[in-house]
Amino acid sequence: MKTINIVAGGPKDLIPDLTGYMAEHILWIGVDKGTVTLLDAGIIPDEAFGDFDSITEQERLRIQKAAPALHVYQAEKDQTDLDLALDWALEKQPDIIQIFGITGGRADHFLGNIQLLYRGVKTNIKIRLIDKQNHIQMFPPGEYDIEKDENKRYISFIPFSEEIHELTLTGFKYPLNKCHIMLGSTLCISNELIHSRGTFSFAKGILIMIRSTD
Q1: How much is the pTM?
Q2: Residue 128 exposure: Cα atoms within 13 Å on the Cβ side
Q3: Domains of the chain
Q4: What's the rounded Cα separation, in Å, for the pair 99 and 116?
């Protein structure tokens, strides 16, 4: 499975141990200060993107020396640094893109990053946002298997579209059968699997799933 891991410049205390996500056939992408986070973890980025306006001159020289492919942009531009990195990643057509360093800090950046998940839905490429406490994904209509994870016990489903049609949850503590969920509903917050695996399905809409620790 081809995986691209992108590390953005969010607070380092919210980023999990990146070495736990290392494997063969993974490309690592640094975004602005996230490139420094990668280097601090002992990971040489395959590509680095950004205007690099949030780093020191010493960090800039370190990145220039270490990163084999550096994409530098002006600070005044129509896309965020992460958006540009995601464009590059999507063009490579991986099986999954995992993005770190996108929670905490500015709320406008975080909400904008949630919107980026929709591009995975449109291109049929899985995108997952990851921090120490949460895994966040977005799904189009369909049926999906889900395995129990004791490190991420709590599972919430939040509408991204105006309506979710026929949401069904099986194997959950609070099951549903073809339930209609409107945007703004908190009905599906903080559920749990009661078996080793379960399924969720829906007929229409776009759904966000968040798996969390307490």
Answers
A1: 0.90
A2: 15
A3: 3-132 (3.40.50.10240), 139-212 (3.40.50.10240)
A4: 10
